[in-house]
């Protein structure tokens, strides 16, 4: 991390934790340079960075001031799900969300869709066209069952950035991360087994658990540090849990990244109870932190961590390229992948391998990281400006999703129906629990459309929320 980034991070934390309040004057450039023993230009660069995020403003001849009204807003509390194994429900609600398209003029807060335009994606699109026109001989035959060698080699390089030391033979390419998760669940469990998950949790992995005939136990989860290791240990003592399934980096729906020491502790816990971990890292590369955080897999010395990911959140979901580093389950995973969907299409694999090899992927995620971080600041600012004061909002450390907890009287399933009439789409909170909890919560996406459209959508949602609350008094 560059010096100015370190300094900007430190100032950002101080602002967000309320150490500096909205309108406060920030330390002068000179005093910060002395305090942190860095050059004047490093401090200026750090402030410029925070200005771009709309967290601070420079006033002529007066210095820098806190601009943000996101300082000191409340995070949700640690969740308190039912502490026993349960069947997953909610398929109908999930299906409704998956089928909801929305016209072009709708405000799209509901799907976890990345930015899919801009110059940084062009080399990939060009390669896809070139391969289609000139290299049909490469893309039409059956490919390697585990994925084409070129791509697996590049994936070894990418996973090195998250602390892993893998070999191309340690990787199995899949059709997106949803298939990766399902294949891993089938590899490590038998019907009737119990899986521990974060709460709230991504609805797709819960539905995979459902169709594999498993039960879930939702574990209390903190909006900044992730799954509670203490609660998990209690559950492990009480129930015959077979595996843990987590999204510990840039979590969906809350956006947190579990601190590295917690990831290591989670791995040690799995070791001491001799169970497996299915780690979903689909958003890991778009962490705002650079270099990106380590995975739990990076601590794995006995192959009990099955790392799943895909390019659906960094490149485009329609490209359907995902992968697994299955550790000691490589043979089972390869077999299940074969019976599940056989080989993956070769063309997108070739194009992505080239995109990574030629540096295009790194450039693309660097751009996305900056854009999402700026959008987070604007979006939280809009939410704190328009939503009721009691609203609690998670603070994503990567990706483009956040979790909003509204006052208790609001039912977000109902809100989503009303919002649709105003051309606004949201993901209701109940989808992120096995049993339909979190009815006053919702997940919002801040990657799609412009900031102006998003702010307008937030303003309209706030109006609908106020209307509901006023009907209740
Ligand atoms: C955490 C998480 N895992 C897995 C998936 C599924 O990814 P894919 O579209 O690659 O199947 C998603 C998609 O939203 C996700 O958010």
Please explain how this structure is put together.
- This protein is α/β, with parallel strands linked by helices and 473 residues long.
- It has 3 domains: 64 residues, Arc Repressor Mutant, subunit A (Orthogonal Bundle); 134 residues, Aspartate Aminotransferase, domain 1; 240 residues, Type I PLP-dependent aspartate aminotransferase-like (Major domain) (Aspartate Aminotransferase, domain 2, 3-Layer(aba) Sandwich).
- Helices cover 42% and strands 14% of the residues.
- The chain has 16 helices and 16 strands.
- The protein has an 8-stranded mixed sheet, with helices on both faces. It has a 4-stranded antiparallel sheet with strand order 12-13-16-15, with helices on one face.
- The radius of gyration is 23 Å and the shape is globular.
- The site of pyridoxal-5'-phosphate has 14 residues, from helix 8.
């Amino acid at each position: 991390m560059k010096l100015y980034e370190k300094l900007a991070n430190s100032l950002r934390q101080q602002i967000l934790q309320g150490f500096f309040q909205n309108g406060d004057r920030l330390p002068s450039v000179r005093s910060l340079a002395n305090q942190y023993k860095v050059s004047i230009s490093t401090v200026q660069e750090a402030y410029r960075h925070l200005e771009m995020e709309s967290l601070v403003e420079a006033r002529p001849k007066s210095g820098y001031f806190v601009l943000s009204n996101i300082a000191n807003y409340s995070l949700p509390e640690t969740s308190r799900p039912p502490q026993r194994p349960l069947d997953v429900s909610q398929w109908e609600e999930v299906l409704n969300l998956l089928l909801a398209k929305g016209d072009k003029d709708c405000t799209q807060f509901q799907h976890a869709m990345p930015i899919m335009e801009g110059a940084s994606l062009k080399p990939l699109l060009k390669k896809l066209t070139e391969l289609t026109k000139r290299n049909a001989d490469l893309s039409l035959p059956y490919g390697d069952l585990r994925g084409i060698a070129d791509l697996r080699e590049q994936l070894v390089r990418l996973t090195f950035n998250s602390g892993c030391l893998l070999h191309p033979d340690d990787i199995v390419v899949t059709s997106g991360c949803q298939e990766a998760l399902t294949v891993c669940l089938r590899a490590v469990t038998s019907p009737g087994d119990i899986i521990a998950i974060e709460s709230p949790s991504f609805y797709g992995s819960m539905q995979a658990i459902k169709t594999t005939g498993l039960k879930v136990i939702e574990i209390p989860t903190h909006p900044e540090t992730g799954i509670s290791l203490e609660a998990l240990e209690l559950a492990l003592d009480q129930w015959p849990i077979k595996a843990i399934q987590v999204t510990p980096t840039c979590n969906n729906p809350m956006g947190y990244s579990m601190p590295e020491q917690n990831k290591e502790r989670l791995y040690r816990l799995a070791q001491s109870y001799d169970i497996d971990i299915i780690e979903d890292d689909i958003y890991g590369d778009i962490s705002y932190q650079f270099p990106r955080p380590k995975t739990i897999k990076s601590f794995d010395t006995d192959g009990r961590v099955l790392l799943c990911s895909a390019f659906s959140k960094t490149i485009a979901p329609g490209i359907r390229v995902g992968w697994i580093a299955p550790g000691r389950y490589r043979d089972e995973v390869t077999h299940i992948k074969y019976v599940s969907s056989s080989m993956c299409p070769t063309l997108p694999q070739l194009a992505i391998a080239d995109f990574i090899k030629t540096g295009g992927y790194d450039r693309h995620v660097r751009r996305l990281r900056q854009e999402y971080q700026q959008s987070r600041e604007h979006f939280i600012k809009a939410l704190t400006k328009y939503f009721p004061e009691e609203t609690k909002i998670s603070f994503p450390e990567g990706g483009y999703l956040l979790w909003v907890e509204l006052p208790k009287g609001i039912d977000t399933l109902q809100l989503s129906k009303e919002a649709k009439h105003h051309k606004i789409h949201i993901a209701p909170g109940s989808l992120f629990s096995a049993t339909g909890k979190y009815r006053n919560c919702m997940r919002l996406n801040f990657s799609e459309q412009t900031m102006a459209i998003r702010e307008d959508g937030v303003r309209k949602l706030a109006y609908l929320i106020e209307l509901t609350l006023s009907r209740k008094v």
